Each structure stands twice: as structure tokens, then as C-alpha cells.
């Protein structure tokens, strides 16, 4: 199916209001991951939280796959999806969850928002895409912002500190995005997401028994966090994102995602009582500005 024609058809059949709602649901869903991870960590270890979250998501994904019956991956592509699940689900969430034990959810969201920089770098190295001097300038400014954010968190960017682990999580997510690029034209974005979530859930399965054991004594708030993380950021967010892409196109829709760290910060204040530091605000603005500059000038 031709992607340009399908997007054009989707834009002609969808109205701006549902598409705007889809964008809003996507942003809130993805932003909610950061405070709910912090809540989930009150009763689960980082790996157990990741295993429980994606076991929940895998149930929804398996139901969708059974209903829609998308094209099954070839053996070679199945290995690629395994790689996507390893970097984009298992390692990413292990690092992010561990990092959020000490880093505030709002600060974590701004650090993760640097992943487009790493995606562009990997695309330059492995896919031959352009990354000019303006991109390097924007990247340096963005990384300086991350340094400002980290300076207000325990351990700063010292290897092994929370902020450094979250930055490494962003690198892993960028690697996953680049790996997935060649799979999306073949299988479509939703099927690719579904196969990646299943692969990640399987890789995290060894920690699932421990998660179940901890959940038997966990508070209702912790259990709620696991369900929310499995349903909204993992499943619903990607479904509404696909709808938004069909209406707005990739370039316009991606611009809305710059709002995600701000929404995550507001949700963190409301749900966890997170105190937003001046270093988080200043560094967050620098990080987003650098990422936006790379998107605007860096790859022309």
C-alpha cells in the first residue's frame, strides 16, 4: 500500500477535531509514563516493573494481532524485531526505571526528549542521512541543556548515576527507532509496534515471576501504575499516534511531541508532588530548543 496515498486518503476522510484529540491523547499517554514509573517503583524493582508493564501491554497487543492478522515477519525480520524489543523495550525501560529511582520524573522526560538527536546521529552513520554543521550546533546546545538538568539531580552525569542511565536509555531508544525504519514500510507502524512490544515482553519474561510475587503485596496505587503503564503509553498512545500521523503527516505531527516533557512535568507535580527545579526548567528549554533546531536546520 502506497504510504503517501494512504495518508492523503486518511487526511481527506478525517476531520481536524478527532485528529487533534488523537494528538492530545498521544501526548498525555506518553507523558504519563514518567510519573507512573515513579509510582510503580514504590512497590516494584525496576526490572519487575518493566516486566509487569509489558506483560500487560502484550495481552492487548496479542488481542489486536489476533483481530487484525497483519503480515507475519520473516525469519530475518523476526530477528530484527527481537533487536527492536531488546533496545527499545527491555534495555530502554530497565535503564529508565533504574534512573527514575533518583531522577525526578519531569527531569527524566526532558532528558529522554533528546532522543531525536541520537536518532539523527545513528541515521547519519547507518542510513547515510545528512547531519550538517547546524545539526552539530543544535546537538551541542541540547547536550548542554541535559548537563544543566543533570546538575540538579543526584550524581549529575557521573557514569551509573540516574541521569546518565536515562541518557543511555535515550540512546537505546534512538537505536531502536533507526532499526525499525526499514521494517515500517513492510509491516506498517502499528504492526511494527505490536511485534516490538511482544519481543520486549518475552525478553522481560524471566523477571515476570518476581513481579507477580511483588504485586501480591503491593499497594493498589502500585498496581494501578502497572495497568496505566501497560495500557496508555504502550498501547493506546501508539494507536492514537498512528491516527494523528494519517491526518497531519509525520513532520507536523512530530512538532506536537515537543509538548510531551512539559505535560510530563505537570502530571508529575499533580501525581507525585515532584518539585520542579530551576535547573530542570532551564535545561529542559535548552534541550528542546536544540532538538527543534536540529529538526529545522540540521538536516537540510
UniProtKB/TrEMBL annotation:
<dbReference type="GO" id="GO:0016020">
    <property type="term" value="C:membrane"/>
</dbReference>
<feature type="transmembrane region" description="Helical">
    <location>
        <begin position="78"/>
        <end position="95"/>
    </location>
</feature>
<feature type="transmembrane region" description="Helical">
    <location>
        <begin position="47"/>
        <end position="66"/>
    </location>
</feature>
<dbReference type="InterPro" id="IPR052756">
    <property type="entry name" value="Alkyne_AA_exporter"/>
</dbReference>
<feature type="transmembrane region" description="Helical">
    <location>
        <begin position="186"/>
        <end position="208"/>
    </location>
</feature>
<feature type="domain" description="EamA">
    <location>
        <begin position="162"/>
        <end position="294"/>
    </location>
</feature>
<feature type="transmembrane region" description="Helical">
    <location>
        <begin position="256"/>
        <end position="272"/>
    </location>
</feature>
<feature type="transmembrane region" description="Helical">
    <location>
        <begin position="134"/>
        <end position="151"/>
    </location>
</feature>
<feature type="transmembrane region" description="Helical">
    <location>
        <begin position="157"/>
        <end position="179"/>
    </location>
</feature>
<feature type="domain" description="EamA">
    <location>
        <begin position="20"/>
        <end position="149"/>
    </location>
</feature>
<feature type="transmembrane region" description="Helical">
    <location>
        <begin position="278"/>
        <end position="296"/>
    </location>
</feature>
<dbReference type="InterPro" id="IPR037185">
    <property type="entry name" value="EmrE-like"/>
</dbReference>
<keyword id="KW-0472">Membrane</keyword>
<feature type="transmembrane region" description="Helical">
    <location>
        <begin position="107"/>
        <end position="127"/>
    </location>
</feature>
<keyword id="KW-1133">Transmembrane helix</keyword>
<protein>
    <submittedName>
        <fullName>EamA family transporter</fullName>
    </submittedName>
</protein>
<keyword id="KW-0812">Transmembrane</keyword>
<feature type="transmembrane region" description="Helical">
    <location>
        <begin position="223"/>
        <end position="244"/>
    </location>
</feature>
<dbReference type="Pfam" id="PF00892">
    <property type="entry name" value="EamA"/>
</dbReference>
<dbReference type="InterPro" id="IPR000620">
    <property type="entry name" value="EamA_dom"/>
</dbReference>
<feature type="transmembrane region" description="Helical">
    <location>
        <begin position="20"/>
        <end position="41"/>
    </location>
</feature>
Amino acid at each position: 500500500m502506497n504510504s503517501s496515498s494512504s495518508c492523503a486518503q486518511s487526511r481527506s476522510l478525517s476531520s481536524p477535531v478527532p485528529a487533534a484529540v488523537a494528538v492530545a491523547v498521544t501526548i498525555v499517554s506518553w507523558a504519563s509514563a514518567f510519573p507512573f514509573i515513579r509510582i510503580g517503583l514504590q512497590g516494584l524493582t525496576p526490572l519487575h516493573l518493566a516486566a509487569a508493564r509489558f506483560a500487560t501491554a502484550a495481552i492487548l497487543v496479542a488481542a489486536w494481532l489476533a483481530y487484525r492478522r497483519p503480515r507475519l515477519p520473516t525469519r530475518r525480520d523476526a530477528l530484527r524485531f527481537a533487536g527492536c524489543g531488546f533496545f527499545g523495550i527491555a534495555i530502554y525501560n530497565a535503564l529508565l526505571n533504574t534512573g527514575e529511582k533518583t531522577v525526578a520524573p519531569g527531569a527524566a522526560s526532558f532528558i529522554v526528549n533528546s532522543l531525536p538527536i541520537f536518532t539523527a546521529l545513528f541515521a547519519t552513520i547507518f542510513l547515510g542521512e545528512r547531519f550538517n554543521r547546524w545539526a552539530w550546533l543544535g546537538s551541542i546546545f541540547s547536550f548542554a541543556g541535559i548537563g544543566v538538568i543533570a546538575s540538579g539531580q543526584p550524581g549529575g552525569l557521573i557514569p551509573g548515576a540516574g541521569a546518565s542511565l536515562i541518557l543511555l536509555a535515550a540512546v537505546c531508544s534512538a537505536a531502536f527507532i533507526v532499526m525499525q525504519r526499514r521494517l515500517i514500510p513492510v509491516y506498517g507502524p502499528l504492526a511494527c509496534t505490536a511485534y516490538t512490544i511482544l519481543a520486549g515482553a518475552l525478553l522481560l519474561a524471566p523477571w515476570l515471576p518476581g513481579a507477580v510475587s511483588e504485586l501480591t503485596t503491593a499497594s493498589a496505587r502500585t498496581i494501578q501504575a502497572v495497568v496505566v503503564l501497560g495500557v496508555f503509553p504502550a498501547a493506546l498512545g501508539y494507536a492514537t499516534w498512528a491516527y494523528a500521523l494519517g491526518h497531519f503527516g509525520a513532520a507536523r505531527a512530530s512538532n506536537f511531541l515537543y509538548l510531551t516533557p512539559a505535560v510530563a512535568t505537570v502530571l508529575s507535580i499533580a501525581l507525585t508532588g515532584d518539585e520542579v527545579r530551576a535547573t530542570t526548567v532551564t535545561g529542559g528549554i535548552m534541550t528542546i530548543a536544540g532538538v527543534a533546531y536540529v529538526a529545522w536546520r540540521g538536516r537540510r
